[in-house]
């Protein structure tokens, strides 16, 4: 009788692992791929080095006027000089601290939400959603507690972009959920109201909504009623986005198998209990990519408020481009805008991926 | 039908009635699925319902907890008549547990959370108490060690046992089983049937749509054969299997007992 000797683990052949194998498999697997690889490398060679030298190596970073920009590269001095306006709009300079305080407060309040076992989470979430906006509004607007009153038409820059988009997101998600449930309701009136609402708001361009809210709406309101322009824009954006959100959420609701509804019913859960505890948690998890997609679109769409005379970050940059002292630096200004928008949108995208991973419970249906 | 209600087990007659269906009709659009169903179930009775697919057996038991609506006739469960009154429906659903073919566990909740959810939200039981009760039932179906896992991490047989435990957590007086083993791999059918046999031995009133004739023989005290939306024949298992009255029953039995 022979005893079996386990075969030792041998290293794989050198052609199947490592850098060379990777290159062969991914970049030079056929003559066409090799050609494409070489072509791409050439294109990168043509574009990347000049871009780097323009944006970083030859760029001017310090200074206070256009005289500092002589090297021929990017003139980031322009962005630096105008940074305060880009961030705070036309907000009075002495009151910037109020915006900064609100921002710091938000970060302090939000951080614990990302800590897994933070004991007061169930109190903190409603506070961030309902308490914080009041505090932020008081800080921004003033007029009480000895704070100087700053009217909303002076709010601007990135601050305004963030206010508009966070209000839009916070309002459109719950409203969208209600509309989606309404559209699937068996009650004919609720259902038709939801359908009409969704199809109306989805059918008109946002720019029309904003224009109507700022120009047409005051004509219909009784004489002397003052209705803040920013508030009107916010309501317009929230209603518009909630229609999109409703359809995203509805797609999630439809993906939940009928058996889940039946099991919830059979256990005696009420309609709202089965929606809130069983259906929506699963449906919303499924449509996180769609929700974040809508949020990202909303974030970028806020730039449209420019046409009704609200000065968000892009509007401030455009205004700065018209400054006779800084003519000809549009590329720097718009590159900066693109970078800021990209950072925010990319963070949202990464956060949504992390959220999907976290909520995945390994279920198979 | 003339041959319906031929012989009723006398032993069950003394017990109070749990479920009564009187002249129940149901249509899906134009399609007449249930035709004049009359059925009385006494406390502690264990009934197996069989019949070809499309015969209306699932529809019938789904009417008992209002997952399907009947259009004519009366359904009375534990003294409460099923009407459009949501209070009656809720009351009946609290008394009637249901186990589905595809388990229908909630995939975003752990096994324990699946079991505790309804007691906490429907029965307003304190969480601690609900969890303790749930663990008892999970022990009863022999999977307490899986309590912290998600349904997606369990085998089909384990999932179905969790589903049974989840229903039992509501402390129902009636259990409905809608083909509980049809979606399972053969080697997992036994573990689920064993759980159901144990449940039957504890005196639970059970209505079970199944093709497991072994289960029917050992556990049921009445077997009902349905075809074309009607109850064709019902009898004690012994008489049902060895001395079927109608031709349709004979044909059906010959088909499913052929091998």
Stretches with pLDDT under 50, minimum 5 residues of chain A: none
- Total E-strand runs of chain B: 10
Nearest-integer average pLDDT of chain A: 86
Q: Helicity of chain B, in percent?
A: 25-40%
Structural class of chain B: alpha/beta
The structure class of chain A reads mainly alpha
Strands ordered across the widest β-sheet of chain B = 6-7-8-3-9-10
Q: In sequence order, what are the helices and strands of chain A, one letter per element? A: HHHHHHHHHHHHEHH
Q: What is the count of DSSP helices of chain A, taking H or I runs of 4+ residues?
A: 14
Please summarize the sheet with the most strands of chain B.
6 strands, mixed
The string of secondary-structure elements of chain B, in order, is HEEEHEEHEHHHEHEHEEHH
How far apart the termini of chain A lie comes to 50 Å
Largest interface: A-B, 24 and 27 residues
Radius of gyration of chain B: 18 Å
Alpha carbon gap, first and last residue of chain B:
30 Å
CATH class of the domain at 76-87 and 157-307 and 332-358 in chain A: Mainly Alpha
According to CATH, the fold-level topology of the domain at 76-87 and 157-307 and 332-358 in chain A is MetI-like fold
Question: How would you describe the overall organization of this protein?
Answer:
- The complex is a heterodimer of chains A (365) and B (259).
- With 365 residues, chain A is mostly helical.
- Chain A has a domain at 76-87 and 157-307 and 332-358: Orthogonal Bundle (MetI-like fold), CATH 1.10.3720.10.
- Helices cover 68% and strands 1% of the residues of chain A.
- Chain A has 14 helices and 1 strand.
- In chain A, α6 crosses α9 (229-255), α6 packs antiparallel against α13 (313-321) and α12 runs antiparallel to α14.
- The two termini of chain A are 50 Å apart.
- By secondary structure, chain B is α/β, with parallel strands linked by helices.
- Chain B is built from 10 helices and 10 strands.
- In chain B, the strands form 2 sheets. Chain B has a 6-stranded mixed β-sheet, sandwiched between helices. In chain B, strands 2-1-4-5 form a 4-stranded antiparallel β-sheet, with helices on one face.
- Chain B is globular.
- The chains are: A mainly alpha (365), B alpha/beta (259).
- The interface between A and B is medium-sized, with 24 and 27 residues.
């Amino acid at each position: 009788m022979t005893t079996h000797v386990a075969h030792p683990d041998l290293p794989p052949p050198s052609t199947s692992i490592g850098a060379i194998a990777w290159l062969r498999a991914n970049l030079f697997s056929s003559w066409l791929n090799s050609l494409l690889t070489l072509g791409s490398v050439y294109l990168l060679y043509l574009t990347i080095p000049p871009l780097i030298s323009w944006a970083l190596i030859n760029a001017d970073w310090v200074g206070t006027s256009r005289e500092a920009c002589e090297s021929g590269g990017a003139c980031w001095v322009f962005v630096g000089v105008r940074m305060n306006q880009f961030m705070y709009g036309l907000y009075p300079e002495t009151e910037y601290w109020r915006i900064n305080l609100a921002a710091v407060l938000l970060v302090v309040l939000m951080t614990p939400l990302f800590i897994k076992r933070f004991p007061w989470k169930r109190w903190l979430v409603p506070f961030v959603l309902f308490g914080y906006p009041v505090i932020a509004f008081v800080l921004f607007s003033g007029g009480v507690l000895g704070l100087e009153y700053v009217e909303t038409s002076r709010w601007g820059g990135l601050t305004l972009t963030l206010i508009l988009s966070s209000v839009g997101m916070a309002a459109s998600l719950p409203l969208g959920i209600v509309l989606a449930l309404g559209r699937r309701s068996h009650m004919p009136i609720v259902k038709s109201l939801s359908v009409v609402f969704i199809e109306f708001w989805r059918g008109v361009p946002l720019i029309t909504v904003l224009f109507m809210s700022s120009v047409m709406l005051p004509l219909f309101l009784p004489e002397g009623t003052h209705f803040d322009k920013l508030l009107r824009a916010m309501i317009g954006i929230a209603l518009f986005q909630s229609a999109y959100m409703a359809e995203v959420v509805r797609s999630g609701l439809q993906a939940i198998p009928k058996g889940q509804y039946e099991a919830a019913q059979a256990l005696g859960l009420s309609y709202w209990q089965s929606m809130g505890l069983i259906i929506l948690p699963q449906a919303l998890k499924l449509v996180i990519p769609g929700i974040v997609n809508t949020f990202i679109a909303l974030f970028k769409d806020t730039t449209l408020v420019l046409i009704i005379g609200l000065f968000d970050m892009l509007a401030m940059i455009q205004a700065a481009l018209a400054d006779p002292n800084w003519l000809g630096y549009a590329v720097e200004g718009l590159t900066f805008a693109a970078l800021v928008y990209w950072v925010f949108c990319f963070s949202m995208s990464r956060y949504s991926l992390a959220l999907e991973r976290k909520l995945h419970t390994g279920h198979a249906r | 039908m003339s041959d319906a209600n031929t012989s009723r087990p006398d032993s069950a007659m003394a017990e109070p009635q749990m479920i009564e269906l009187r002249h129940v009709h149901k249509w899906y659009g134009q399609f007449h699925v249930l035709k004049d169903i009359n059925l009385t179930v006494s406390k502690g009775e264990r009934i197996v319902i069989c019949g070809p697919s499309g015969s209306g057996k699932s529809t019938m038991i789904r009417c008992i907890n209002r997952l399907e609506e009947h259009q004519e006739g009366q359904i009375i469960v534990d003294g409460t008549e099923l009407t459009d009154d949501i209070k009656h429906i809720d009351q009946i659903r609290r008394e009637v547990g249901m186990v589905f073919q595809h388990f229908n566990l909630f995939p975003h909740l752990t096994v324990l959370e699946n079991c505790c959810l309804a007691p906490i939200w429907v029965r307003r039981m304190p969480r601690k108490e609900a969890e303790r009760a749930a663990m008892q039932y999970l022990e009863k179906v022999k999977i307490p060690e899986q309590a912290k896992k998600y349904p997606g991490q369990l085998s089909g047989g384990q999932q179905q046992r969790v589903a049974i435990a989840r229903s039992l957590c509501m402390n129902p007086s009636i259990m409905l089983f809608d083909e509980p083993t049809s979606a399972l791999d053969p080697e997992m059918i036994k573990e689920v049937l064993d759980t159901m046999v144990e449940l039957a031995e504890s005196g639970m009133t059970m209505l079970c749509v199944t093709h497991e004739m072994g289960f029917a023989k050992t556990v049921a005290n009445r077997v009902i054969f349905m075809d074309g939306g009607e109850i064709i024949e019902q009898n004690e298992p012994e008489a049902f299997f060895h001395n079927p009255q109608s031709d349709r029953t004979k044909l059906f039995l010959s088909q499913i007992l052929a091998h």
